[in-house]
Write a structure and sequence with these properties.
The complex is a heterodimer. Chain A is an alpha/beta fold. Chain A has 13 helices and eight strands. Chain A has three domains: 39 residues; 210 residues, 3-Layer(aba) Sandwich (Rossmann fold), CATH 3.40.50.300; 42 residues. In chain A, strands 4-2-5-1-6-7-8 form a seven-stranded parallel β-sheet, sandwiched between helices. In chain A, helix 9 links the parallel strand 7 and strand 8. Chain A is globular and about 70 Å long. The two termini of chain A are 20 Å apart. Chain B has a single domain, classed as Cobalamin-binding domain (Rossmann fold), CATH 3.40.50. Classes of the chains: A alpha/beta, B alpha/beta. Chains A and B meet through helix 2, strand 3 and strand 4 of A and helix 1, strand 2 and helix 2 of B. Bound molecules: guanosine-5'-diphosphate and magnesium ion (MG).
């Protein structure tokens, strides 16, 4: 395993790909992988790209890859597609829309959301951390903008780009999905189609009504015709530079890290309470004692928390 | 450790039909696999590079153009060069028996000809990947 980490840090793509699989499959090796990477956190800026299915996210990400490469910057991409709730399988088709570059400066990885609530956020952040340790300048994370898990990833992005298209027309849907809150900037894609102008106007109108914060920039793009992509990237870079300049980035990252740690521990305990036979046994036992009027529910809860505190399997820090 | 089977479905060379490839891709998804589909006209080197970066267990190459006898050995060589000689490489298409035999000898794990059911394909892949993962762990 240490060997894989060293190879990855030396630029071996096969090693990076293996490490990503281990992280995604929650291998018992994962804590050791990240321990070995402790001093190599990376320097990438993370750009989340989200929006409804079919908005042109993958095509636009492909164009952004080209533009960033033309500027000599390296790119890692995580392209997330939903798993089928029935079979657990997934069709991962985002690469289809991205240019096939024989380019050491680009690494694209497709991932399925898989079933676990919160699991997607955990896995994708681990994979993003690996891309970062691989030394990328940019990490683009494409997710469908529906559902809790997807939006949770975006909380961890440095900048979030929301992609909409005139086909959906319906800004109400995007509003409901919480996309307006997560977006630092917006692309109205498929500008080559009718309705793009009015969608842009509608968005800008909606943002003006919101008084709690400054209106995010809205740019028109046609990913298919490669128009407006340079201007969009200028805007992304402006946001990146502003965040880096005001000295807040470090504090923001630390706050995000604290939130991420809390989430991961919550999930870990939730998983154990739901699935670990020791814990489910303890739960049953406490419930029975409450039923038998032996202890009250608050005493049972205190007992459970006490036991969770000295949980097994927790490695010493 | 949950580890879904990851599959890359690729079309190599010039032929422009991918209906069959898409049918297989969705059938494998329905069998619980994570299927990456990269579209038409891939080179052998592109297929191997994608297989490496995506860390797939299986590469399925479909060929209707009759070019399989040149394409598949190239994919095998490219996979070896990319350090992925461990991948289960399967082929689908209109491939005569004697040529299928030659491909198996060259290192293709299985040839699926028209009429193979998607269920057979899924079952073969499940078995073969389990076998190779078991061998890798030992
Ligand atoms: N007309 C037009 N079609 C586009 C544009 N960008 C993407 N598309 C098409 O929209 C469809 C969905 O694109 P895709 O990138 O897969 O969308 P995603 O689901 O958001 O990732 C594809 O058929 C693309 O070719 C665009 O700027 N204009
Ligand atoms: Mg997409």
């Amino acid at each position: 395993m240490e060997n894989l980490v060293e190879r990855m840090q030396a630029g071996d793509r096969r090693a990076l790909a293996r490490l990503m699989t281990l992280a995604e499959n929650e291998s018992p090796e994962v804590p050791r992988i990240f321990a070995a990477l402790r001093r190599a956190p990376g320097r990438a800026h993370r750009l989340g790209v989200t929006g409804p299915p079919g908005a042109g996210k993958s095509t636009l990400v492909g164009r952004l890859i080209e533009a960033l490469r033309a500027a000599g910057e390296t790119v890692g991409v995580l392209a997330v597609d939903p798993s089928s709730p029935l079979s657990g399988g997934a069709l991962l088709g985002d690469r289809l829309r991205m240019p096939v570059l024989d380019d050491p400066g680009v690494f694209v990885r497709s991932m399925a959301s898989r079933g676990t609530p919160g699991g997607l956020a955990r896995h994708s952040l681990d994979l993003a951390d690996l891309l970062d340790a691989f030394g990328r300048d940019w990490i683009l994370i494409e997710t469908v903008g529906t559902g809790q898990g997807e939006l949770e990833i975006l909380n961890e992005a440095d900048t979030t780009l929301v992609v909409l298209h005139p086909g959906t027309g319906d800004t109400v849907q995007a509003l409901k999905a919480g996309l307006f809150e997560v977006g630092d900037l917006f692309a109205v894609n498929k500008a080559d189609q009718i309705g793009a102008d009015s969608l842009k106007a509608e968005l800008e109108w909606a943002f003006r009504l919101r008084e709690d914060r400054a209106a995010p920039p809205v740019r028109m793009t046609s990913a298919r015709e490669n128009r407006g992509v340079g201007e969009l990237l200028v805007e992304v870079r402006r946001i990146r530079a502003a965040r880096e300049a005001d000295g807040q980035l470090g504090a923001q990252r630390q706050a995000r890290l604290a939130r991420r740690l809390r989430r991961e521990v919550e999930l870990e305990f939730a998983d154990r309470l739901a699935g670990d036979p020791d814990w489910t046994g303890l739960l049953e036992n406490l419930a029975r004692r409450v039923m038998d009027l032996e202890i009250d529910r608050y005493a049972a809860r205190a007992e459970l928390i006490r036991r969770l505190g000295k949980t097994k399997g927790a490695t010493e820090a | 450790m949950k580890a879904p089977i990851r599959v890359l479905i690729a079309k190599v060379g010039l032929d422009g039909h991918d209906r069959g490839a898409k049918v297989v891709a969705s059938a494998l998804r329905d069998a619980g696999m994570e299927v990456i589909y990269t579209g038409l006209h891939q080179s052998a080197e592109q297929v191997a590079a994608t297989a490496r970066d995506e860390d797939v267990d299986v590469v399925g190459v479909s060929s209707l153009s009759g070019a399989h006898m040149t394409v598949l050995p190239r994919v095998l060589a490219a996979l070896r060069a990319a350090g992925r000689e461990d991948v289960v490489l399967v082929a689908g298409g209109i491939i005569p028996t004697d040529e299928a035999q030659a491909l198996l000898e060259a290192g293709v794990a299985r040839v699926f000809r028209p009429g193979s059911s998607t269920r057979d394909i899924a079952a073969f892949l499940q078995e073969e990947v389990a076998r190779r993962r078991g061998a890798g762990a030992a």
